[in-house]
Amino acid sequence: MEAILMKLAGLLVTGFKIAAGSIIGRGMAGAGLAWVNFAYTLPTVKGWVTDKFGGLPSNIAQFLAATGVDVMMTLILSAIVARVGMRAVTTTLSSLECLIGQEQGT
User: Fold this and answer.
1) Nearest to residue 69, comparing CAs of 84, 49, 89, 87?
2) pLDDT 10s digits, 59-89
3) Residue-wise over 13-35: b if at least 16 C-beta within 10 A, else e?
4) What SS3 class is residue 101?
5) What mean pLDDT do residues 79-106 have?
6) Among 3, 19, 26, 49, which is most exposed with the fewest C-beta within 10 angstroms?
7) What is d(CA 72, CA 70) in angstroms, rounded to the nearest whole number?
8) Torsion sign, CA atoms 69, 73, 79, 80
9) CA–centroid distance for 13 within its chain
10) CB within 8 Å of 42: residues ≥ 6 apart
11) Cα dist. 80→35, 87, 95, 102 in Å?
12) Cβ(48)–Cβ(78) under 8 Å?
């Protein structure tokens, strides 16, 4: 009975190690992607949106700025860019994980 409990405890600890590694890895990837998004991608996206709305009359631009549409657009575009970036990272990692074990034709 003790052997069964020891084996079960070992399997449980191993499962927790694997789960924690995956969760911490995804958290670190998300934090890194958020930093890259904020530092590099977001200014480019904001510049693009500003260029697109640059032709609006000044009274409409002031109204949109007062209602917070510019902030809303920045948040939405930032979320889209972060989602696409995270999907690219996870897709790349999952495709690499599929290749593990296939390097020698197994």
Assistant:
1) 49
2) 988 898 899 887 888 788 878 877 777 777 6
3) eeeeeeeeeeeeeeeeeeeebee
4) coil
5) 68
6) 3
7) 5
8) positive
9) 28
10) 74, 78, 81
11) 15, 10, 22, 34
12) no
The one-letter amino acid code at 91 reads: T
The encoded tokens of residue 69 equal 């549409």
What is the C-alpha to C-alpha distance for residues 102 and 106, in angstroms, rounded to an integer? 5
pLDDT, tens digit (0-9, with 9 covering 90-100), for 12-36: 888 777 777 777 777 777 788 778 7
Six-digit token pair at 76? 């939405």
Q: Per the structure block, which two tokens stand in for 62?
A: 């002031």
User: In angstroms, rounded to a whole number, what is the distance separating the alpha carbons of residues 101 and 81?
Assistant: 33
Tell me if the pTM is above 0.70. Answer: no
Smallest CA-to-CA distance from 74 within 90, 89, 59, 53 is with: 53
Rounded CA separation 54/50 (Å):
6
Torsion of CA 83, 25, 90, 82, to 10 degrees: 10
Q: ∠ at Cα 10 (9, 13), nearest 5°?
A: 85
